[in-house]
Amino acid sequence: MIFKNSLKVLGFSVLASTLSFAASAQEGQTLRLALHSDIGSKNPGVNRDGPSDMVLAHVVEGLVAYGEDLTIKPMLAESWSSNPEATEYVFHLRKGVKFHNGSEMKAEDVVWNFKRYLNAETDFQCAGRYNGTIGAAIEDVSAADDYTVTVKFNAPAPNFLMTLATIQCTPWILHPSSVTADGKFDKPVGTGPYLFSDWQTGRYVELKKFDDYSALTGDKDGYAGNKQALIPTLRFMTVPDASTRSNGLVAGDIDMIDEVDPTLIDTLTAKSMNVDIQQTPSWMTLHLQTNAPRLKDVRMRQAIAHAIDLTQLVGAVGEGRYVANPSIIPSESPYRDESTATWPAYDVEKARALLAEAGYNGEPISLLVSNRDDRVQVATIVQAMLNMAGINAQLEVRDWATQLDRYRRGDYEMEIFAYSARLDPLLMYQSLIGDKAQEPAHQWDDKEAIALRTKAANTQDFEERKKIYNELHQLAAKQVPIIGLFNLPTITALNPKVADYKGWPAGTHRLWGVSKKD
Do 152 and 137 touch, CB atoms closer than 8 A? Predict the structure, then answer.
């Protein structure tokens, strides 16, 4: 109770300070979206997290993007082609696209960006998907003329466009002025419908409408399509406490809130708030550090899996909105079939027997979790289930930035962690599987898994990829490098003054095309 109350006090103080800043804004001129946590970075693709990706996607754009139907569509490139071997891609850029500093985007800007992202000093988090660490390596990026860019690989890269379109791994196209003369990142100067205005760490990020935005024709379409801004200012406010966010929404101090607790849906609806619920592949998980001395023995990890009742867990936290799922492949995926359901069944006695075989004697095992209400709730229930099986799990609650840093360094034994939506299982497998010595954030360091991941990355055939994904799931069920808990819907609540907002399977907010009444 002390912990929960302290969170509420923190959330209220942050909200109050943010609203005092906003008091002079005209009602219809600013859209105020309260986020559960601050962005991790203003440098696209660097030190990124879910909030960073979502906010910055209003500022920067890539060559291609996922559309509403989850096909890959034009964005800054109006068309593209590849050779039959998928080793060379040619992109034809849209003409007249302006950066926020007024310069026209040209092919040389795209080349500069790719070279910057491939430079190890940039620390682009998805560099491995382009430099050969995972799959083929880009060996050359060149400009044939002002509007034509050629990307060449050293081996077939059949899934290059999918990676380009994925928000977690897009090489966002920035103007070189985003970086100072000495190579230090300053702020994102992009081509998106909003320009980056201000970031008060821990309080808010503010974006301003870009009046010279080069919008595509037609309708809003995923992260493609028409992205014309209608509201002059977007303010993404950091409000960690869920109660503070919902109370602020009802009071009219906030226009939108994310990560709505399912228990609040009926209450908010009864108070005339609009609630948008979108099922997504976003995935709540329990990470198990296979390098940790107490968890190296696979029997320990299997015991943990047998100790967790996923059905009971989602019943306790989801109000029927969450879908229990131990697999990387979500229930709505076309790659899903009966073999994906294979997983160590809930069996406390089996868990205790495995613990005894592994020689476990009740030593404490830490369970790291961020101080967000929903995450702590999940961690508390998981802790109770593990304790019932004889596993001495000890909660370690930290702020989100600290947990994210420790995740990236592999500095934990167990942790509750959530992944934003990956729109193809390959993208999640690429995030999870790999050499921990090269990338400590990898969860699954196994030669057979790495070989299967590489095989999947080198084929576009649906049936072949489905077979590979099922092989990976079967292997994961044996080795238990990670325990999937459930898929998360995106639940967003909005003041009735906000119009034309729509969720989509990628689970991220898109505030272009959204309007607000005075």
Answer: no
